[in-house]
Amino acid sequence: MHSNEEFIKFLGEGSYGYVHLVRYTNPDDGGSSFLTAVKNSYEEDYDNLNRELQILRELRGYPRIITCFGDYLEEGLSNYGNRVYKLLLEYASEGSLNAFLNTYPDRKLPEPLIKDFTRMILEGLVSIHGHGYVHCDMKSDNLLVFPSSTSRYELKVSDFGNCLEVGQVAHSWASDFPWVGTPNYMPPESVRDGVANKTLDLWSVGCLVLEMYTGVAPWEGVKVSDIAARLRCGEAPKILQSLPSHAKDFIETCFSRNPEERGSAYELLFHPFLPPRPQVEEGEKKTEEKNLNSFLLRLLKLKIRRTTSMKKSTKDSVLVADKESLKLRMNPRFKRTLNKVLSLKNHAFEEIHRLQFSVGSLRV
């Protein structure tokens, strides 16, 4: 059984790769199809992309983390005959948070949506930090927005190309370029030593909340070298005095010079700035489960196989991969992976309800 792979459009670039929107269609199953964001990397970046896959596999099933499909990188050819590797990810139809901001006047989001998104970002960091990782590149380009049947929108963390284990130092860090991730979102300690600690991501959260209120990225228009100098002098991105008091206090907490005073992602979920997580009705929960099960079933039916033979590239609108579609062999190992996804999905719902109960009980 073969599936057809159709290039739809270029979505953008991430760490160590570029992303295409691809539609997979199974002609042997009544033309069933689904859209996937495919992250492509060249051979020299194989290790980085494969490491991102392994982290996403470990985080698979958590609702605030982008979902990857399959346990291996797919292999193909670019139209220039270069070998490329592919990571299949769920597609966010609303795009990145950065792009989403452009749909609002002056790129400023309504306050209720800012609070919802902030809560979702922190929930994602609770999952990431709980597994001993620091994302190291929390910015509006790396947060993806999805439509939702249970709320206005859902937000998920993506692009783990710069992700490090707690205590690691980024290979790219140097005294003359002292950054773990994107400079505009980095804290003072990044300039000092480049060690990845969980509190590094919390400074970035403060930058993101400020950006959603003002429509402008932190340190906009400031040279990278000047950002480093300002951070060394104890400066932080300017917080507008017109912001609500709880919002200012939340951002100031994230911008604490002493990283320990920022607390943890879990503790910030209980800040007065954030509302408790909305309750999920039983019927809505079943709908979410049904949609996920349906998607996994379609993925299984398509049986996208790993391509091991390299074919001559042909002129096509697709910038990467040979025309022959990808397909996974339905071996017992792949079946066990799907069963694990379903198991983790159930665990994720349990974690959400545990978090709901914790928030609710502390606010009573």
Automatic annotation (TrEMBL):
Swiss-Prot/TrEMBL keywords: ATP-binding, Kinase, Nucleotide-binding, Serine/threonine-protein kinase, Transferase
SUPFAM superfamilies recorded: Protein kinase-like (PK-like) (SSF56112)
Superkingdom of this protein's organism: Eukaryota
Gene3D superfamilies (UniProt xref): Phosphorylase Kinase, domain 1 (3.30.200.20), Transferase(Phosphotransferase) domain 1 (1.10.510.10)
Alphabetized GO MF terms: ATP binding; protein kinase activity; protein serine/threonine kinase activity
InterPro entries listed in its UniProt record: Kinase-like_dom_sf (IPR011009), Plant_MAPKKK (IPR052751), Prot_kinase_dom (IPR000719), Protein_kinase_ATP_BS (IPR017441), Ser/Thr_kinase_AS (IPR008271)
Keyword Protein biosynthesis set for record: no
Annotated ranges, domain Protein kinase: 5-274
The keyword Transferase appears for this protein: yes
Database matches in PANTHER family: CCR4-NOT TRANSCRIPTIONAL COMPLEX SUBUNIT CAF120-RELATED, PROTEIN KINASE DOMAIN-CONTAINING PROTEIN
UniProt name for this protein: Protein kinase domain-containing protein
Source species of the chain: Brassica campestris (Field mustard)
